[in-house]
DNA sequence: GATGAATGAGCGTTCATTCAT
DNA sequence: AATGAATGAACGCTCATTCAT
């Protein structure tokens, strides 16, 4: 009680718990998707339900935190990889390949890849959007190098990524290398040799889908 | 025995109910996906639980019936549309467009589009597979006309369709015409101008993913 | 409508249906006990639910009818058998043996053998009680021949029969001849060599259990 | 971690609940048999459904626990009573009397008394079988004292007990002392004065009913 | 701060009985 | 009179969240 380090110890403990929860949740969500029982996460974390709910007042909060973490580290790795690659076209291709090889195994990640569009006003500001800067960087560089259709937007690439993520999920158990074919098709479709402009995001009108996109 | 219309009258009424259930279920499943409460379907059908379960002994049976119906009419419409179109490339494009415009609004349909791969041995013989013949026909014709990369399989096209269906789901509320862009990219990627062969479905070995592929 | 035989034909038809229902119900109740689904009975009868419920306004009514029938034919057969047997002791033994061999296979019969005591005022006047006269006849004759403890009542014998019926049910699948041992024990216990009087049915007081007992 | 009493305190409360559930379940099962609604048990326990299902993951588990408890205390009491009684014949009689007086009121107990035979391989290892040792002890002692027919097995006694339990159930409401008469008859039938051997459990053949019998 | 027991609305399903035809 | 479809309360069970300790 009077020990001034008690508070600190608590803090440290709490922080350890928080991390344990996130880590366990990450594993479980990767394996089983976001429909898992919260108990399973608590069990794997080694903490009680109360602790879990103290740190994350809602299952959704936990989910969001985990996904933010995943997307953040993902974005970081992607950024570094991009910086190491000189050829912008190859950088883009490898970004997709790595994403689909290493991230699309994570069921909850893939499940929520589309949430940025599904519920853009929902309290999920940071998730898919964390990836946006990297994708945009890759896009800009590829564009500058003439390695990408000129009117491809970041959103386009993000949506293609999400879509191919679903393909990975669908086929991973029965035909794990299948997605490489669809990826190739998409990448080829992004080739600047295709000169016809892509359809407008909207017909005009007011609802121009919010994003600046380009 | 007795009035020959008696049996039929009953039948007619029951059939009306059956259809009402399927219709309501279809609507509900389209809106909310396959996780809905059966009671909601019963409510919207205007029938009691017992009636629903008399017609469909299991929620899954109902689901399957609805989806089979949906896929069957879809396949029929696609077939007719294909027959009316001379240009094989345009036929393929319009198949995708119609599919994504009219079918991909249906949450349960999209949810189950990947089940052929996820659980190929599951008791869902007729669903995605109902579409296979049409896709294969379109593919063959496009191939013959030199309007498609030579090694594109029916599976490839089905997976692209499923993937783009997810894009529709993701964007339909916030940017309903968005998917047309990703579709264009994919279609362009299918162009025979891309001469490099697609990656093999598998690395060799025994697990060649089962499908003949086409 | 005007045909005077129409009514009769209906009657005949109805009677046939009624008998079909009873017969099917008997079979089903014998096999599966009184917890069966009424639909199963209707199915096996070849009639619709409405017909079944027209003849028997309640599952319980049907049950009662079936059981009354069973008990009646049983009682008749037992009566005839008793008349054919001179030795009263043997007659009693064979009554028990036949009952347990041939009747105790009927699950619903055994289940309801005790209902005479469980709910004596219930609307089940005729069931176990249909057997009472035969048992009483056997008892009287055995008593007269000095082949039975003097104060054994008809109720005593009926209860022993019900109890042994349970034994048959318990053991029929795993040890089908087992009940003969317990029957022997009971029969031996009924031997007049046992001179000590049986306990009084009640402690006196008013509730003398209703029966005259015999 | 932390207060060592914390775990225990919870435990104590949970234990109280667990006991409350068992007690309430015991009462309800005694009154209404094993077909009761689980909600009724929860209600009477004063706990929610979740609590009940936390302690007993299945209705069957609860049932089993209650019955095991009931049979265990019963067996214990019977054992102690047997040890206090010198006269083996009287010990056997009093065992039956106590069993029928105090245990056979319990509907679920009586319902499951026959399950050892009905479903010997079912997941009910401990129930009727808990009683076997006591019965066997009583039998052995009675046999040694020449107070029992020589070829009476433990199974015979258990089946007689189950059968008489049914008699208690049948008569308890309308003639609560009735069973004493049938018990006397059975006990008299067990007298070694009856020298004729009991029928064999089986006709020979292979299916010798599994039990060693004793 | 941590614990994990408790809560209860909700889910998929069954079945005795009623009723339109 | 016969049919069998319709009804809906009830059942066994799950799980996101709360709360006493």
What do you see in this structure?
The structure is a homotetramer of 214-residue chains. Chain A is mostly helical and 214 residues long. The first copy, chain A, has two domains: 8-57, Arc Repressor Mutant, subunit A (Orthogonal Bundle), CATH 1.10.10; 65-194, Tetracycline Repressor, domain 2 (Orthogonal Bundle). Helix content of chain A is 64%, strand content 0%. Chain A is built from ten helices and no strands. Chain A has helices at residues 4-32, 38-45, 49-55, 59-84, 88-103, 107-111, 115-118, 132-144, 154-171, 179-189. In chain A, helix 1 crosses helix 2 (38-45) and helix 1 (4-32) crosses helix 4. Chain A is elongated, with a radius of gyration of 20 Å. The mean pLDDT of chain A is 88. At the A-B interface, helix 7, helix 9 and helix 10 of A face helix 9 and helix 10 of B. Chain D binds a DNA duplex (21 and 21 nucleotides) through helix 1 and helix 3. Chains A, B, C, D: Residues 37-56 bind DNA. Chains A, B, C, D: Keywords: DNA-binding, Transcription, Transcription regulation. Chains A, B, C, D: Residues 15-74 form the HTH tetR-type domain. Chains A, B, C, D: Residues 205-214 have a biased composition (Gly residues).
